[in-house]
Design brief:
Blueprint lengths: L13 H12 L3 H13 L1 H28 L6 H40 L11 E5 L2 E4 H19 L2 H29 L12 H9 L2 H5 L4 H4 L8 H29 L2 H6 L3 H10 L2 H35 L18 H4 L1
Antiparallel strand pairs: 1-2
Length: about 350
């Protein structure tokens, strides 16, 4: 094989990079947790927490921006740790990233069928299999997760370009959700529901700040796929920071929308505050279901993003001899690390 046959192809443009990083960060957590943020820190407190958390992550992003500009190779942190700390440091850092990414991919396969329960009729769960930690598992529930896993795997296997297109479409849907929140806040929101502006004092604020790193995880999939980005290397770093700012803005829009829609007593009574808030803003359960669809879009973008990132870190480790060489093989037609993806 020639050197070209063994290398990945640079096909990702500016919008692909933004969609990849932003989509990886916006999973399903915001749908479930926004009520907790508002109750723990108050409306303005929750906004301040995400401004603080976003700023801290931007500083991390600036470091990544310098590194990805200097070492635009697949595997991101694998290369940085290897250069800075040697093979042992690279080994430890790479396995930490790989196992983290794999756990997210596995989580999404469980999150998808669980989220579908909010949209499908009660008869959705059929074919009882077993119970795990008090949770009953059904064949139909498992089937949704398996079908999702196969679909995401095939999408990544046949090329980075199809994955990027899918990511962009799903992210556009998430942008639509943000736009609905902005419109709904002015159309059906109430300033009275914003009170209290702060709750729980400093402890409440810190409790939400501590959640923010979890909500921003995912921007580092850009360094993992740097070898497939067809942009000036310095611009890749700039887009990484922009994606973090966009994610912080998205979360704040959701906080403002739900905070204007639901009183504190209503927040305490609802299981899915984001969906309830969207429904209240427009006075229709249809919009609550649209919000849940947005949550599913977030699951899929996160799933797709971490599949890309996870397979590239495995590919990079194989290239360096830390894993079997066949995991570094490039598909001759699709130009993807096919074995690493599988």
């Amino acid at each position: 094989m020639t050197e070209e046959d063994r290398s990945l192809t640079r096909v990702l443009g500016q919008k692909d990079v933004i969609a990849l990083a932003f989509g990886a960060m916006i999973g399903f957590g915001w749908v479930v947790l926004v009520g907790t943020w508002l109750q723990d820190a108050g409306s303005l407190g929750a906004i301040l927490a995400f401004l603080i958390g976003g700023l801290l992550v931007v500083f991390v992003g600036l470091t990544y921006a310098e590194l990805v500009s200097a070492m635009p190779k697949a595997g991101g942190e694998h290369n940085y740790a290897w250069r800075a700390l040697g093979p042992l440091g690279g080994f430890v850092a790479s396995w930490a990233i790989a196992l983290g990414y794999v756990s997210v991919v596995a989580f999404e396969a469980v999150a998808l069928p669980t989220t579908m329960e909010y949209l499908l009729p009660e008869g959705y769960k059929v074919g009882f299999l077993w119970s795990v930690a008090g949770y009953d598992v059904y064949a139909s529930w498992v089937a949704v997760g398996v079908i999702g896993a196969v679909a995401i795997t095939v999408l990544n296997y046949v090329g980075i370009r199809p994955s990027a297109i899918f990511q962009f479409i799903a992210v556009m849907f998430l942008f639509g959700i943000a736009l609905l929140f902005v419109v709904g806040t002015f159309a059906g929101g109430s300033a009275q529901n914003f009170g209290p502006l702060f709750a729980g004092g400093v402890a409440g604020l810190i409790s939400v700040v501590l959640m923010t790193p979890f909500l921003f995880v995912g921007f580092d999939v850009i360094p993992q796929s740097a070898e497939e980005i067809d942009l000036p290397f310095r611009k890749i770093g700039v887009l990484l920071v922009i994606s973090v700012i966009m994610a912080a803005t998205y979360y704040i829009i959701v906080i403002v929308g739900v905070g204007s829609a639901l009183s504190r007593s209503a927040l305490a009574e609802t299981e899915l505050a984001a969906a309830a808030g969207m429904g209240r803003l427009f006075g229709s359960e249809v919009f609550a279901n649209i919000l849940v669809l947005g949550g599913i879009a977030g699951i899929l973008t996160s799933w797709n993003g971490f599949m890309i990132g996870g397979s590239r870190i495995v590919y990079a480790m194989a290239e360096s001899g830390m894993l079997p060489a066949w995991l570094a093989e490039i598909h001759p037609r699709f130009r993807t690390p096919a074995n690493a993806i599988l």
